[in-house]
Amino acid sequence: EVQLVESGGGLVQPGGSLTLSCAASGFTFSLYTMRWYRQAPGKEREQVAAISGDGDRATYADSVKGRFTVSRENVKRTMYLQMNNLKVEDTAVYYCHRYADSVGAADYWGQGTQVTVSS
Prior knowledge:
mainly beta; seven-stranded mixed sheet; 119 residues; four-stranded antiparallel sheet; 11 strands; globular
């Protein structure tokens, strides 16, 4: 069974930093591109970052470029999101994601971790 478990969220002041983790199990982690999404209250879920299975390629939403860094440790089956210079608008629930293996099947999501940026 595929499981994704996020951790590391919390309350931080503007300009602060947090590192989120996504622990994966139930599949060969290194074979899959993994993604971070976020959803703020009243807004649609948006992709924040993605990282290839080997960790060599990463992409970011324009809103977080230069502030967020996605990484992974395949031996630990864990993906990370280092978030620096956090802004109030980064407040959201952050989710770990993996695409389904077949068309029509449901994608995999973690339960989410809350990040609140506030003074």
